[in-house]
Amino acid sequence: MSSVDRAEVAESGLFREDWYLNHYPDAAMAGVDPVSHYLENGAALGYDPGPGFSTCGYWGRYPDVASAGMNPLLHYLRHGRDEGRATGPAGSERDGFDRKPYRNFSEFLRHSLLQPLVKAPFSEDDLCSFAVMGRIGAQLAERALSCPDSEAPLVSVVMPAFNRETVIAEAIASVLRQSYGRFELIVVDDGSTDGTVSAALPHAADPRVRVERCPERRGVSAARNRGIALAKGALIAYLDSDNTWLPDYLGAMVGAFLQSPEIEAAYSGQYICRSEEPEPVAVRFGSYNKSLLRNHNYIDLNCFMHRSSALERAGGGFCETLTRLVDWELILRISRSCPMVSVPVLQSNYFHDRADNTITRTETLAPALEVMTKRLAEPVAVDPPAPLAGPVAVVVVNREGLEPLHALVDDLCGTYSRADVELIVVDNGSSAPVRDYLESLRPMGVGLVFSDLDCDFPSAANQGAALARPGADILFLGAGSLPGRGAVEALQAAVYASPDVAISVPQIVVPAGHADAGMHVPDTLDALPCDVSLSLRHRNVARVGTFHDGERVELDYAPFSCVYIKREVWDRCGGLAADGDCPVSPERILCDYVRQVLGMKIVYTPAALARHNA
């Protein structure tokens, strides 16, 4: 997005900032400039810039604009207005665009990995999925309620508050109405100057409620940390003073911990509400996606619970120097150090507008986002990978790209012996400096193939694989892809974890602002890198567990910019069909053959990461 694009949309008279934020709660919660949100994300999601322009209607009427991939409002301003094109909805075309790409709960869970927000009006398929979530919640709550008192964990609920006299009583009442009664509620007043304490104190007649008064305001993170310090429970939950829980929230979450005693943290879904609307305006729930969480926070603190021991493993409680994104910062640290699952339950209400002094409204996003960007760039401490269990041939299909080649050669040749990893480069018509560099690698045992400029990827991949030593598995890398530390080992471990696994795929992370990121992950935050292996464009998620731990995901299609294939599988498939023989995707044909004919699986493993800069 250029400054020219932004200015043109902002000054068009068709973009209505208040209207946009009121209609699309995720845009308001993102905390970014609304015009930028529309240009970077909103249009791809079918959002309208205002009541006078229909994004989906314009695309529906004018397929040339849709096929060109141009923002519809920009096209109208620059071309369509002079051509007399219409701006309103195109009848049923909008319905066709907005139709949800799932028909049952299994497909809903798969879709939620990449699109955690479902906007109202809800379709029949939406409501059926929510009903299944209701049954899951009731079953989990029943498990918690049937647990003997001696085994039922105490939950410490931490509620910070600052000047919330009009809403805090309802928040407290929603905790006291919980069907699971083994909890303590710690209300921490952060130096309020109104009647917040007076509104809270009557509830302290219940012995489970404690009101802690701080003499001066120190911020929400300090207030939450004070509550944590006072907490006695084995589990800790959070509820802000302008939100509420439905009666089975604690029971469902405790039931999830009882069902999976190995987990340290869990989160569920929530209804997004506005005070003036009788029904929710959206539902937010996403099956646990580690890479998406590193791009932006789709997990709200009001439906997040963790063991008290998780804080020590994560390095402590809330960061008191941040004024925004403090929940994301904590959840990220816990997710990096503790096992966590998503719980498909809707028992939490997030109110977008019940308080005027929310952090989203009063604190700017940019400073906190800059801090988070730096922290996300820091390496994560991981255990050293286990040694490779067998040889691997890394086949690189290259075109120019001298700098990425240097990085790849230095990394692979500096990390692995030739007995473990052999490097094969198929060069597709690069310039003389690149070819000279490749020739210099021959004494190092690098296999080389120099192809014509018109050689397609399948032909180049087949030529490279033909050079691989017998019995070696094959890791294909597209131009510009660089596996991270331990990625080769993690990919190999994934395919040999079960005899029915044939292919493994890592996180394939493109840089911040990459032009293609939004096509794969429409809700991506443009300011941060994005994993495009799981893709709504490819719709390649085949299966995700009901209670997903963020680890293995079954795919029906593997992007070949970085893909690991068992050698026996490659040989049985006979390689990739050349484009000249098959005008459709040879990679997809191979993936379909693996799944449907060989009866084997393709898996995505976030433990492996490759960066793709092409």
Structural class: alpha/beta
Helical residues, percent? 25-40%
Instruction: Calculate the mean pLDDT score and round it.
Output: 89
> What radius of gyration results from the CA coordinates?
26 Å
Task: Write the CATH homologous superfamily of the largest domain.
Answer: Spore Coat Polysaccharide Biosynthesis Protein SpsA, Chain A
Number of strands: 21
The coarse overall form would be: globular
Number of domains: 3
Number of continuous helical runs: 26
CATH class of the largest domain: Alpha Beta
How far is the N terminus from the C terminus?
19 Å
User: Any idea what the CATH architecture of the largest domain is?
Assistant: Alpha-Beta Complex
Kindly report the CATH topology of the largest domain. Answer: Spore Coat Polysaccharide Biosynthesis Protein SpsA, Chain A
